[in-house]
């Protein structure tokens, strides 16, 4: 996307609150891979999807420093819950610091360990899944969450365009993302639209 259009979209999306602004600043200041943050536009999109879908149980695969989990928690009703997982304790420590300061932090259940194990441990119907973890496992995560997702539930697959690499995938991550996009397209259990928001979002609804 033209960087000017990207900036325009950012400037014309309602800003996040002060706590999330602090989280962004700390991540950018202290961590090397700050581009892994979902950011304002994508964060507000998933927040709005939660409200539109009436979601109460959300699974986040890949927490990083907690921006997306926190912005989704704000959108959930009082009895809502986010199960979020990551393998990096350093990231989780930063995330917990901000969750503890938020009035919505109690809705967030942090699981440290492999995402596949976290998914397998969930036995209640899931309303929405936000997928943003190791790309090699994207197809595996998808197949595991589909049976647990309620009818009408939503999967948001982040980085679905991988900076354009899906056009001619060569590396394992690129091939895995392209494979998942093709699996979704042919899957008669779902309907989808592949959006060019940020690095690509495959928005999937279970029929």
Task: Tell me what you see in this structure.
β6 (190-195) and β7 form a beta hairpin. It is built from eight helices and seven strands. The protein is an alpha/beta fold and 207 residues long. The relative contact order is 0.13. α2 runs antiparallel to α5 (89-101). Helix content is 43%, strand content 21%. Strands 3-2-1-4-5-7-6 form a seven-stranded mixed beta sheet, with helices on both faces.
Structure characteristics:
207 residues; alpha/beta; 43% helix; globular
Compose a concise summary of this entry.
The chain is 43% helix and 21% strand. The protein is α/β, with parallel strands linked by helices and 207 residues long.
Average predicted local confidence, pLDDT = 96
Strand order of the largest sheet: 3-2-1-4-5-7-6
* Weakly predicted, low-confidence segments: none
Pairing-aware structural class of the strands and helices? Answer: alpha/beta
Instruction: Estimate the strand proportion.
Output: 15-25%
Please compute the radius of gyration using only Cα atoms: 16 Å
Order of helices and strands: HHHEHEHEHEHEHEE
Q: Summarize the amount of helix as a percent range.
A: 40-55%
Distinct helical segment count: 8
What's the layout of helices and strands?
Elements: H1 3-11, H2 18-30, H3 39-53, E1 57-61, H4 67-75, E2 81-86, H5 89-101, E3 108-112, H6 115-121, E4 126-131, H7 138-145, E5 149-158, H8 172-186, E6 190-195, E7 201-206
Parallel strand pairs: 1-2, 1-4, 2-3, 4-5
Antiparallel strand pairs: 5-7, 6-7
């Amino acid at each position: 996307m033209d960087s000017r259009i990207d900036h325009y979209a950012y400037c014309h999306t309602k800003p996040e609150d002060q706590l999330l602004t602090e989280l962004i600043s700390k991540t950018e200041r202290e961590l090397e891979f700050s581009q892994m943050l979902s950011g304002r536009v994508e964060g507000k999109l998933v927040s709005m999807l939660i409200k539109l879908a009436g979601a109460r149980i959300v699974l986040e695969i890949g927490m990083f420093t907690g921006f997306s989990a926190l912005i989704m928690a704000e959108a959930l009703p009082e009895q809502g819950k986010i199960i979020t997982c990551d393998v990096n304790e350093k990231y989780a420590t930063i995330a917990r610091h901000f969750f503890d300061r938020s009035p919505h932090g109690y809705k967030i259940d942090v699981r440290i360990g492999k995402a596949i194990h976290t998914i397998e441990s969930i036995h209640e119907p899931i309303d929405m899944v936000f997928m943003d973890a190791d790309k090699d496992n994207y197809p595996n995560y998808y197949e595991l969450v589909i049976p647990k997702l309620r009818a009408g539930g939503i999967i948001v697959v982040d980085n679905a365009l991988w900076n354009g690499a899906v056009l001619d995938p060569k590396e394992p991550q690129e091939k895995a993302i392209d494979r998942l996009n093709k699996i979704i397209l042919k899957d008669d259990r779902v309907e989808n639209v592949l959006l060019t928001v940020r690095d690509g979002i495959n928005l999937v609804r279970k029929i």
